[in-house]
Amino acid sequence: MKHLNKIHSNFSLNGCKFKSINDLLSSSESISEGVFLFLIDWFHADDFIVVQTSGSTGKPKTIKIKKEFMVNSALATGDFFNLKEDTTALLCLSPNYIAGKIMLVRALVLGWHLDVVNPSSHPLDGHHKTYDFCAMIPLQVQNSLLQLDRIKTLIIGGAAIDKILEQQLQKLKTRVFATYGMTETVTHIAVKQLNNCRTNVTSSASPKDLFWQAVETPFKDSFKTLPNVFISKDKRGCLVIKAPKISDAPIITNDLVDIIDSQHFKWLGRYDTIINSGGIKIIPEMVEQKLENILLFRFFITGLSDKKLGEKVTLVCEGKAQSIEKLQIEKVLSKYENPKQILFVEKFVETNTHKINRKATLKLI
Fold first, then answer.
1. pTM for this entry
2. Matching CATH number, 274-362, of 3.30.300.30, 3.40.50.2020, 3.40.50.970, 3.40.190.10
3. Residues 6+ apart with CB under 8 A from 159
4. 188 CB burial (10 A radius; 0-12, 13-18, 19+)
5. What does the alpha-carbon distance between residue 130 and residue 119 come to, in Å, rounded to a whole number?
6. Mean pLDDT for the chain?
């Protein structure tokens, strides 16, 4: 493939351009060990990269991803967001995981000017540059709200975005998108615009406005797929992804979805977290969405063993035990969704990518 083992002539890393691969490797070693090690792998003769999954939905594992697929993913993101040569971008995620690795590939392939900073919960502190593009996890976004005007387009992944944060994003000029994807899909295969959404574009709209109309989601809370991504559901109601440019075989997920049309779907929750309470099936993530505006601390819904019901809906909260206004909860939940038990854990267990590790947290109880 023509993009492999090459450096785009416009590419720069932390303000430096490079005459050769060896020159780039030598310079990257002083920037970040993770960046250096990835670039060593990227320019190696192997046609694949070994990547570790985050472990948010199971045990972390290592998988092989073809470099060709990573290039295709980078090209798709560039086309979708109209990010051409000389795009300025910030890498503030760990290069040890797919989201950080693919930012490096995008820059190398598309000819971006990429700055790398150490991954932290406050990625925009300590410098004042502006960027065309950046990817963050929700925690980083929450801690950077007053600085996000320095980023034109921001994608958020790695964990769910709560309603409070989404409301805060409405005040920003930055175009912000939630992403749907996983390591196996080489990061995102679909995005959902979170702010600056429009329902109509006039005939006098500029080409740029028409572009943004093309990428924004016309259905509330739905994801729009990138080009060459084909979606369907299996018998369980879970998303099946066919994307020949990034995967040799269909990817069968455990994500329950509502497919709206060939390009749009709504994410409902995880098949492997469904609670069967007295024969009634409850999707925890849908219950959590209803509680987001009521509970101002971290929490999750789970099913715990119950002799009568089989499983009982349980609300697990982070922090010291406190009284919770049950009447408020009952107003937004059905009688089947209403928690039969409320538990407190002082501190949730997290994965390496700062997602709540529900199984490990429950073991603390």
1. 0.86
2. 3.30.300.30
3. 56, 137, 138, 139, 353, 354, 355, 356
4. buried
5. 18
6. 89
